[in-house]
Design goal:
The chain is globular. Strand 4, helix 4 and strand 5 form a beta-alpha-beta unit. The strands form four sheets. Strands 1-7-6-4-5 form a five-stranded mixed β-sheet, with helices on both faces. It is α/β, with parallel strands linked by helices and 330 residues long. The chain has two domains: 170 residues, 3-Layer(aba) Sandwich (Peroxisomal Thiolase, Chain A, domain 1), CATH 3.40.47; 149 residues, 3-Layer(aba) Sandwich (Peroxisomal Thiolase, Chain A, domain 1). It contains eleven helices and 13 strands. Bound molecules: acetyl coenzyme *A. Acetyl coenzyme *A binds next to helix 2, helix 6 and helix 8.
Length: 330
Amino acid sequence: MIDFGVGILGTGKYLPDRILTNSDLEKMVDTSDEWIVRRTGMKKRHLLDDNMPSYMMGAEAARLAIEDAGLAPGDIDLIIVSTEVPDYLSPSMACLIQNSINAENAVAFDVNAACSGFVYAVTIARQFIQTGYYRHVLVVANEGLSRVVDWESRNTCVLFGDAAGAVVLGRVSREYGIKETYLASFGNLGHNLTIPCCYISEEDRQKRSPGKERTLWQDGSEVFAFAVRAMAESIKTVIDKAGITIEDVDLIIPHQANLRIINGAAKRLGIDDEKLSVILHETGNISSASVPVALDIENKNRRLKNGDTVVLVAFGGGLTCGSVVLTWGK
Ligand code: ACO
């Protein structure tokens, strides 16, 4: 008989110091601050320095999350890293971070569900804790998307930034923690957003400029339509599963790909703006790091109160989507 809940014990984030503003982008491609703000809501993004490995962001976010949880690296049993831009195909980002933070007792592996990866990883972590197999699981979302952006393509380069967010999950009192989760994958739609790696098809080659074969390409309007639908359905499904209504939800922390996507999904469900956590004007699209970075900001700014009902929701490449509903508190 399980007499505990599974909840978030601590949060952390890392955003690189280097900032790229919309006016910087105006000097790089044929775009304008006005277009970017009107079509996306974004104003700036943080970028990794060329000589910094991406996993260093995740390691720093992880250290802060472990400290916030009141734990030491040696207390971590499992590290799951969500990433769609690993530094190496092997070793995994999770093993690189394990080594960097001296979490010598942890098992470590990566998951890739693109921007939905944090929600997927939290769902996996919950199972391990709920069964009693592990006690403390560190989930890190580590995304260095600037490394796969074509910086000469205005269609994509204005959208993305780099960041990492982390949480430590563990046992909490039964009334707190994760109440329900929902995951879905649509491999039949995967061609709408691709980042080739070890194999380049002729189709992938034709979508990109010569020499840019390993950059991110997306059909923006197809992904947009999917995103609004997927985000609304993911929120609705998870709150239905939890037996609550949208009025019961205090805060929604969505993936931050475009303000119009967030507002479109919110409008479908009749969600008030003040219930939405929005950070994309500061970060751009930071893939699966969006949700944990926003969560850390809400946690550290004390907007989250004990007993608040919080929904985490994301969509992304794959295509994938997912959501988590939890009661904040330990
Ligand atoms: N600056 C100025 N003009 C631009 C820019 C730019 N940066 N980018 C495109 N345009 C132009 C286009 O060329 C087009 O011009 P045309 O009408 O002369 O052809 C016009 O603006 C409109 O282009 P659209 O693509 O229709 O613009 P839209 O309003 O759809 O916005 C965007 C494009 C922002 C990409 C939007 O479609 C979107 O947000 N899509 C979803 C993206 C997303 O969520 N991706 C998930 C990524 S998650 C992951 O896994 C990484």
